[in-house]
Amino acid sequence: MKAKFLLALFVSLAISLGAIAQDNGGVKQDTKDAAHSTGQAAKKTGHKVKKGTKKAVHSTAKATRKGSEKVEDKTETPK
Question: DSSP state, 22?
Answer without folding.
Answer: S
